[in-house]
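Troubleshooting: if your tokenizer reports a length mismatch, compare against these two reference records.
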Amino acid sequence: MTNGKTPPGEDPPRHLVAQAERQLAACGAELDAVIESIKAGDLGPARDLASAMAALRKALEAVFSERAKLEKITEPSGPRDGELDLAAASAEVRRRMACLRTAQSARGVSGGAE
């Protein structure tokens, strides 16, 4: 089972998008054939119209789903699991050092409450 991330050195699974698009084209062609035969007066394929439309809908959903997965894999989206955000860590260190300096200088002020 994979976690949806492309392992380093491997291409993203673009072939899945292409396969889903081919399936969509095939379902579209099948629906076109059913519609043309109905227009020609052959009402036999009319009962296949609903199943052809359902297959087309499923194929379209598969294309959208695979494209979304591919975009999610290929787009850079900040630090990934296990990676450090060094800029954020550096900012946090500077913030904490400033707090320590402020606390140190407040204790060293003469004339304070004793």
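Reference record two:
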Amino acid sequence: MLALVLPFVRLLRRPMVGRFDARVWIVRTATVAGLAGGVIMLVVSVALPVFHFPVPTGRYGIGTVTYHWVDQARPELFTADPAAHRELMAQVWYPATPSRDAERAPYIADADAVTSASARLAGPPPFLFSHFRHVTTNAVAGVPLDDVDIATPQASSLTGLRN
């Protein structure tokens, strides 16, 4: 990477013959700044890639629906607001009729809020999580449940941010 930048730094340091030409200096500076910005964007895109899930290979598509429940009977313990109540977000994934043309659901429904909260809890700067807003799944939001055998094994997962 240094080999790409050094020739352009040399352009800036080349001695000016005669009078100082502001236009040449501005062009050289803009060229170096643009190349540096391109290198930074390349490094960030490699370090924080927008990943993709593998395409499902089974006979069913994937449907998903997200619920936001508020328990009005229980006050929230982790806030200073006395009017706040316990809230729970739940996302359900289920077998659905496959659809190739439908818009895919996001990996995280409200990615900006979730990733900033995750960053506060985990410690690193929020921009390290910001690429999650661009990640989509293979699921389609709100599609009907496929005609599936009820005896099919079901999996559930309940995770928290801390143990």
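Descriptive notes for reference record two:
- The longest strand covers residues 61-75.
- Strands lie at 61-75, 85-96, 139-141.
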